[in-house]
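#onboarding

Welcome to the new folks! Below is a worked example of what a typical request in this channel looks like: someone posts a single protein sequence, and someone else replies with the predicted structure as tokens. Don't worry about understanding the tokens yet, we'll cover that in week two.

Example request:
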Amino acid sequence: MSVGACAFNLLSDKFFPVVTRLGARRWVAFEGLRQEDGDYPVAFDWPRGDLNIAAFEFAIGVLTLAYQPEDHGDWTAIWRATSDIDLSERLTALSFAFNLAGDAQGRGPRFLQDLDPVEGDVNEIEALFIDTPGINGQKKNADLLTHRGRFPALGVQAAAIALYALQQFAPSGGAGNRTSLRGGGPMTTLLWPDRADTSSSAPLWRVLLANLPQVASGAGYLGDEDLPRALPWLASTLTSQGKPPLEISQTDPRAHSLQAFFGMPRRVRLVTGGEGACSLTGEVGPLVTGFVQKPWGVNYGAWRHPLTPYRQAKETELPYTVKPKSSRFGYRDWVGAAIGRAEKVHAAFPAEPVSALGARAETLRRDGYAACRLMAAGWAMNNMEAGTFLQSVQPLHLAEDETKAHELARLAIALADAGDAAASLLRSNLKLALFGDGAKTSTDSGVFEEATDAFFERTDDAFHATLEAIVLQDQASDQADDQKSRKRWLALIRRTALDLFDLHATALLADAADIKVALRVTDAYRRLRAALGDFGKVSAALGIEQPVAPQKLQKSRKATEEQSA
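Example response:
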């Protein structure tokens, strides 16, 4: 095993594969991310989506560690390059902590690895990837979609980013193998600024700065002597073996809030040796061939990661991280991740840079960034097993003033809630039509899941078009405009739900030998139509002004006529 030949530093060496404005692909060191003229980088270019998201989190984490912005003024100075902190000097000062295999002699701290050697069996290097089949899956030959043996050896760059992704997103991994600081498979949301001049993409550097968070309130400035509080591999691991296991929360004096970017739940030491082609990137150079893992790494308690949205079931309970449920990110997810909810029950909190966008938007506009999009990404997990990787880019509807922003938020929440209610009614009435009252059939899969997914797909564009129309208006909407938007939405979700009911249920009528089946289907259709009608509960929940019901109008006219007589 040749350790010295594998000396590699994540800050000073060429660690990041990028694609440039003109479509070229190249490797750059951290300083190379700062290029904003010529053929500048516009995106990371790892062959896997999860590694690109990990690269974003790593780069943003390093910048936050270097600058440690405390308020909006600090962020503005960094964005405008007027900060009194010299980034190059800070990166040089921090570089000792980012050696992948120690120094040139293989000594000293190793990035995201136990400070002391770890004894045990050597695991195949591809086991760093979350979607690699586990031992049980391989024994059962259950690795049909994600095969074993994909990556027999990784180059140092690929091994470093795979290790970072594991530590940031780690799911449960058996006894003592801790989940990440955010739990298994957290969702990451990132702002993506767009230039007003649409002929060229925003530099990657601007994307990173747009997502720069502030250091958590009360965390205090982190001096070089306290770096182990943020970079835990600089000190002996705070192991979690024992009962009860040691738990490290964000307020623990042994940790700093910046450890959110550099958590170390897994105790790992990489095994290096030899040279050859990386089986992920094809780059020729030093290889990492395996790793040794030991259980009982850092057991993280209550933390808030700046790049992840959170939810809170009740005021008395701690917020928990949002996690992808599938490869689709619809407007139900968008509301919580982009706007948030302030309710006492089922509150939602966007990631910190998204929340700060209102304050930063004017600075972005002045510097030629007319809009922002929202990127959401993460593994949809089933306990220890990775399902699909979500990566979705959605519009962000930026209001120009606070009044319009509040109006847009209220409308977005109302539309999303109405869509949820309509989808729920569609499922329940499909269940009635297909199986009858009282049937103990789950509505989470099969035809019900298919109908629900189709409902949200068919209404997604209209949701964002409605919000964008609010943003483009010259002034805040009046009551009449607001009511028109809500009525149009009600008409759309009613039509969509009824169409999907027809698609999945009314075919039964043609083959119904039993009159009971026909009655069941027509009754379910009638209920669905009534619930989504102008006088239904969804209309009321939408805040639509209720017209006088026809029968009440007739009674009112009759009473007036009698009084006149």
